[in-house]
Description:
The structure is a homodimer.
Chain A: E1 2-6, H1 14-27, E2 31-34, H2 49-61, E3 67-70, H3 81-84, E4 96-99, H4 104-112, E5 116-119, H5 131-144, E6 158-162, H6 163-169, E7 182-188, H7 192-203, E8 213-220, H8 233-244, E9 248-251, E10 263-264
Parallel strand pairs in A: 1-2, 1-3, 3-4, 4-5, 6-7, 7-8, 8-9
Antiparallel strand pairs in A: 5-10
Helix pairs in contact in A: 6-7, 7-8
Amino acid sequence: MRIAVVAPSCRLSEVAAAKVEAIVMARGDADLAIHSQCFLSDGHFAGSNAQRLAALRDVMADATVNAVWFARGGYGSNRIAEAALADLPDAAREKTYLGYSDAGFLLAGFHKAGLCVAHGPMVQDVIRAEGEAAVGRSLDWLVRRDEASLEPDLAGPAMAFNLTVLSSLLGTPLEPDFNGAELLVEDVAEHLYRIDRSMFHLARSASVARVRAIRLGRISDVPDNDPVWNGDAEAIVRDWCNRAGIRFGGSADIGHDACNRVVPFPLAAS
Amino acid sequence: MRIAVVAPSCRLSEVAAAKVEAIVMARGDADLAIHSQCFLSDGHFAGSNAQRLAALRDVMADATVNAVWFARGGYGSNRIAEAALADLPDAAREKTYLGYSDAGFLLAGFHKAGLCVAHGPMVQDVIRAEGEAAVGRSLDWLVRRDEASLEPDLAGPAMAFNLTVLSSLLGTPLEPDFNGAELLVEDVAEHLYRIDRSMFHLARSASVARVRAIRLGRISDVPDNDPVWNGDAEAIVRDWCNRAGIRFGGSADIGHDACNRVVPFPLAAS
């Protein structure tokens, strides 16, 4: 089992990389190949668009790589997602892609293109408290499809996204077909008025009308709203689901934290 | 000329209201009717959804009102915009609606419904430095269609929006037909990575593909990006226009400031 790590968004820390390399070595059930691109820096990003794209396409085309694990989020994978899918080599279709947060742009577009993707912890998560458990969950899923890694209430096709990222890809070429899928959303460091605005966008978008349900992951590190916001994130999601005639399916065990569980997307026809 | 003021988003300050009342009194060319709803408070909003909607529908249905001037932005007009357009009375079609920022949700939906809308300074802007000039520009437009109030480079159909608000209404029932229009965008207090993400969303949305051009208003009060962002807002807009094959039309004299000029939307068929 060979797992390649690339950073389509922001730069991976050397500390996180070394910790995860040690974890994988100790497990002994996989080879981890952290691409040197992960440590490049170009302003906000882990290298220029061209550098990030080249590294991603490298590992996608490499037939010896069984899984591509995104190093971390931040911002920027949308700038290369469409180009990554051009002239897709066969080898790209024979592997799993795993990440979340900003990597949601890739999950969406790759899923739409028929690739096998899953939403779950990334390499950089190892530096969180209890972060070893988070990366272990992803490794258990990548290496042996361990069902203990999965979000516990999955029943039928499901997709998971950072809510703000999802809002930002509606209507673009990256948008997948949501019909019949349960949509799990989480977010971090967004004011509740922004959560409300993103939920308006999601629930009132024509392309989201026929999801099976929306479930709410954790909305963490919420900055203070000024003036104070009446109610909580669950009330927001319930309200917009209710207005749009979408079933609210309850909570989801995903979020920007060490407890984040894996959500494999359904295999879509290309 | 009778101008009604309502607050579909956040609460108007009494200080701003009194200043604008005095300005209108001194001009002597209009009656200003500031609805008592403007001073209600319900958490983040100027009253509950029901209270804000009732006030808005009141003034829309009032045949003695020639113009509806939105008090201020903030957040929340998207929560009542669709309901405001239900069973539209004839009187609603015979007046002008003016605002910007969060009021962009209303501008979009009202324009789509065939109403006469314009993007321009609001009542609360009077408390900015040079704010009297800003509200005077809106009053000059509402009262006598003074062309000196207009954005100076308008040539053909144009629409103006806060970029984040515009991104949040793409694909919803509020989204108007952008084909052939020049799109002017501005924003405030958003990190450059967020501006980039919103521009990705705008430029890569299928419904925006046939705009005549995108022009960039002011992007102000930008919080520091960490890590530092290479380039400025104009480089971002040029880049996404270029990728999407949309003409970049240069700068636009709009923004969250006292220099904000008026952009009347084209009259659309309902």
